[in-house]
């Protein structure tokens, strides 16, 4: 049976159903998340914003205060000359502490956040191997977490939960890494293994989804109901938010934009196939071309990051081969972005990942190319934003995952 | 603020949110649609299937019976030897009559359905022009509708609503054809114009969405929560159902699979760009190659359909050039399907449209090509089904659109 999307627009097949979808979360959770997003709000502001009665807000906030999740603070007076300032509410930052960890092929990062989503500490460690065994993965994950805890002056037992992100096809619901370029094995029950190792609740996900969550919780997507995130680093990832919710594909395993084909019999991808988008724009694709363009010594153990930075400097200095590498990557990225826009028609496209330090990839001619490849049918052109959060954004997304799970447990059990 | 998807699984970012989404339609509408899908059900079966109390079902069905939408019929006895058969409920087929119309570049079709979604009559007319003015469009739409009404022995006033589908970028919510290959003008308020001409409520949509609705209401998608429909005719269309709801993209204007790029600087598309999927697989793409492969006389006004049928016969008879045309179309379609699977990871892909009479497009080697282009990451391979409903499926989808709008009006106003 077809299901309808909304209480207010019950039409199945009539109207842009997903667009009109109304809020279905419990009121207490909506109130709580509104409060966290706003920093501090008065009860009357919350009631107005949620379009519910002040009495409902008072009942819910009393319970949240009693549970230690929310506190009263002195609000900012609207008019300094008139009496005492109104009482505002805020999420209690000290109620819980959570951690987020992102694994990648050369370095791992971890952050510690408080319950208000504010950063307490961060740490980065280098990885011993490009592909890790399960034992190595658990060891290195623990190591970067301990490093962040040390910075924060906290112990592991202080944490209420951990979120972990890594590239690949991750079954978030089951906590299984079906395939990851970082792991030597397939079908690893990484969530359960890490939970056992750390003695803490653990949620895992694909790293592009984490970055999308970070945008949804803390970033440019905070005010948007539908947006797409495209990440370019060692691979090309994609995350999508529909109606304020992360979309993970029909089977919940994520969207493989990096392996959509942009050229038949094209460049060889590390997946073994040809013509994948990431075979033109990911780090490894640029590295193999850089070796031709630059005076590269194969006996030197130069890191991919360093080689690409050198390539970028050469391009800026006028090296035509170096420029040609970035230009092809940009033009091919334009094909991928145009395809995404044709299919999903998002309001916003966020480009992210470490390659965003190479401005060739989002230069005006690349964005013009996207527009020229996209059917002109009167639909609005989506905004394209470049994420410049730096490397810690991934780990913050992982922390958002842990925070989401914790909030769901706290507010979902005894529903208001 | 991020919105949660469900009352039962309030986790934002935790779990495959759209997958776990629960039912949010009013109970009376869910009950009604379950009844229509099942044909006839007892009150106790309805209560069990909807997981609600028998008392709720009795209250709602009493109201639906009083309103003339539902009737009691004699049910099938479970055990012939034991007493009188149970009373079953059914949607009253005669409660309303609606029409669905599909416009295309060479022929138009219309169907009349009863309130139970059963076909009463159908008709087809030929089109005078490939591209029509608004006046021609309204005239030809009226003509095919009148033809179907004549077959049914009904008058226009007997209809409760009309659904209309045509190719192009259609703003369904606003009733505006932003761009259609059939129309000489852009931004046409076709919904309102046709409603005024016919004196009836009219809903319009992109034809691929109609076909997706037909699958959702009457076809292979009836039992599926997530599926994709790809249509190949004069163009390439796509429709997608997520969580039993039609997805129309971020702006509600549909998904332009046909204009995603499969080859940089590739074949010229009728949109004016190069390398679009439809420039390799749509009718016009095959027609222009057929003119080279066949002994084609440019002075003969041979229809595209006839030319392609001749091409297909030649291919079957061993003409290498003809086979090469279908083979390239099939291989390129495989790229498009593989990209769709990488991005959306659907449970089912339905191939539809008049080109499905050419079995080269879904031959085993095409499906093998799809598999070989798709990343092997342990995710389940989607089922691929070929729709063999014939030409009337489009108009039935248009009728489903009208039926959906009518049901929404009847059951959405005074909510149970």
TrEMBL record, chains A, B:
<dbReference type="InterPro" id="IPR036390">
    <property type="entry name" value="WH_DNA-bd_sf"/>
</dbReference>
<dbReference type="InterPro" id="IPR000600">
    <property type="entry name" value="ROK"/>
</dbReference>
<dbReference type="InterPro" id="IPR036388">
    <property type="entry name" value="WH-like_DNA-bd_sf"/>
</dbReference>
<feature type="region of interest" description="Disordered">
    <location>
        <begin position="1"/>
        <end position="22"/>
    </location>
</feature>
<comment type="similarity">
    <text>Belongs to the ROK (NagC/XylR) family.</text>
</comment>
<dbReference type="Pfam" id="PF00480">
    <property type="entry name" value="ROK"/>
</dbReference>
<dbReference type="InterPro" id="IPR043129">
    <property type="entry name" value="ATPase_NBD"/>
</dbReference>
<protein>
    <submittedName>
        <fullName>ROK family protein</fullName>
    </submittedName>
</protein>
């Amino acid at each position: 049976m077809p299901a309808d999307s909304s209480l207010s627009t019950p039409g199945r097949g009539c109207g842009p159903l997903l667009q009109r979808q109304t809020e279905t979360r419990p009121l207490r959770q909506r109130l709580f998340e509104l409060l966290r997003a706003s920093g501090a709000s008065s009860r009357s502001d919350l009631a107005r914003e949620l379009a519910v009665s002040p009495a409902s807000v008072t009942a819910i906030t009393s319970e949240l205060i009693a549970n230690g999740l929310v506190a009263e603070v002195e609000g900012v007076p609207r008019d300094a000359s008139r009496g005492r300032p109104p009482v505002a509410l805020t999420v209690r930052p000290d109620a819980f502490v959570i951690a987020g960890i992102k694994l990648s092929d050369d370095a791992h990062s971890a952050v510690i956040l408080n319950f208000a989503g504010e950063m307490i500490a961060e740490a980065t460690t280098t990885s011993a191997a490009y592909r890790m065994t399960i034992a190595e993965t658990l060891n290195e994950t623990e190591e970067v977490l301990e490093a962040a805890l040390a910075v924060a002056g906290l112990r592991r037992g202080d944490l209420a939960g951990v979120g972990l992100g890594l590239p690949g096809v991750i079954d978030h619901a089951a906590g299984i890494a079906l395939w990851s370029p970082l792991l030597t094995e397939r079908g690893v029950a990484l969530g359960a293994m890490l939970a056992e190792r750390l003695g803490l609740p653990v949620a895992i996900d694909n790293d592009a989804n984490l970055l999308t969550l970070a945008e949804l919780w803390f970033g440019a997507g905070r005010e948007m109901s539908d947006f797409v995130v495209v990440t370019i680093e060692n691979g090309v990832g994609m995350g999508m938010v529909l109606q304020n919710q992360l979309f993970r594909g029909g089977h919940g395993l994520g969207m493989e934009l990096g392996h959509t084909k942009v050229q038949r019999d094209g460049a060889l991808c590390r997946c073994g196939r040809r013509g994948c988008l990431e075979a033109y724009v990911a780090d490894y694709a640029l590295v193999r071309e850089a070796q031709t363009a630059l005076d590269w010594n194969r006996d030197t153990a130069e890191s991919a990051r360093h080689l690409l930075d050198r390539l970028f400097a050469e391009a800026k200095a006028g090296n035509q081969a170096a420029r040609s590498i970035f230009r092809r990557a940009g033009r091919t990225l334009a094909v991928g972005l145009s395809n995404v826009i044709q299919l999903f028609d998002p309001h916003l496209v966020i480009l992210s990942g470490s390659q965003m330090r190479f401005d060739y990839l989002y230069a005006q001619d690349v964005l013009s190319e996207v527009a020229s490849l996209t059917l002109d049918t009167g639909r609005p052109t989506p905004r394209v934003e470049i994420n410049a959060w730096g490397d810690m954004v991934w780990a913050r997304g992982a922390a958002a995952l842990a925070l989401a799970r914790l909030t769901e447990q706290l507010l979902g059990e005894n529903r208001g």
